[in-house]
Hints:
By secondary structure, the protein is of the alpha+beta class.
Amino acid sequence: MLELLRRQVGPDVPSGAAYSFRKPGQxxxxxxxxxxxxxxxxxxxxxxxxxxAPGWLSAGEVSDAxxxxxxxxxxxxxxxxxxxxxxxxxxxFWTPYSLCAEKWTLDRPAAALxxxxxxxxxxxxxxxxxxxxxxxASLGWRLAAVxxxxxxxxxxxxxxxxxxxxxxxxxxxxxxxxxxxxxGGKAYVPPxxxxxxxxxxxxxxxxxxxxxxxxxxxxxxGVRLETRGVTLLLVNGGEDLVAAIxxxxxxxxxxxxxxxxxxxxxxxxPAVAVAFGGNRLxxxxxxxxxxxxxxxxxxxxxxxxEAGLAAEALxxxxxxxx
Length: 322
Ligand SMILES: Cc1cc2nc3c(=O)[nH]c(=O)nc-3n(C[C@H](O)[C@H](O)[C@H](O)COP(=O)(O)OP(=O)(O)OC[C@H]3O[C@@H](n4cnc5c(N)ncnc54)[C@H](O)[C@@H]3O)c2cc1C
């Protein structure tokens, strides 16, 4: 396989790369080297509709994987076979859907959809499983909050659907546009290296390196967030913010039994300055999403004064009506 890719693509075939082919008269094809050992490959031919695929393939007769391999060879314009010893292991035919459930959550009994049960999109871009993992990360701490008695089910699940629907829509828009580009493109697309980066963070963004309420905190080396509870981040500007703020935060978390951590970030670092602007405080929930940003060195009122609302203020960044 590697030899053939060298002939098709050129001598500089990096290990573990993905290759895209668009030959005249053929639909786009992609080949991924997936085990890093040049032994296991994964290929796809994309047809605009099921009618454009060979009848036996769209009819679901996919038991003969070597027949599918010949289809892939044709799409990649292989004038000679992939090489001796190549074995076709499996073949699928699937339809790329663009679907999202109308309702993701129920209050009573408390229930939530996650993963492919909540949304489907084309595998192009590799977002499906990643979105499901993101759903689980957003759902996990909410369920823990209910089980630990920090939040009522309705409050805990509030925002889950909107947040994850937005993540799906972002990925789906990318996939739909990319698929249209691939299907319409005439030119050969150069190979991509393993671990390629997307221009924007589609799965769960921070915003241009900025800390924004409702979005994930940008990553700062050395900053460890409390994954079982909440984190208070203090932007160090010289004065002792920890002494001024941390006791009230720790006391509020202690009243409702939420694990907490206080973390100081160096305001002199350029990335921190970009992220926080004029803000001095941030509170993050267990999945690193920012729930509060403050310019002044003071916590939200609900955290300091009203024990009953502290959980909503800390974890949801809002007061939830009883
Ligand atoms: C060709 C292809 C390539 C892909 N490549 C990527 C990729 O590179 N990156 C990526 O992130 N995603 C990729 N995906 C998407 C990814 O595979 C799916 O998003 C992911 O597997 C969905 O996981 P899930 O657990 O939500 O659902 P599923 O994998 O569908 O799991 C649901 C499970 O529930 C079981 N089940 C159903 N009903 C019942 C019942 N009544 N009782 C008990 N069990 C039940 C099913 O048998 C199944 O095992 C790809 C998909 C395809 C088709």
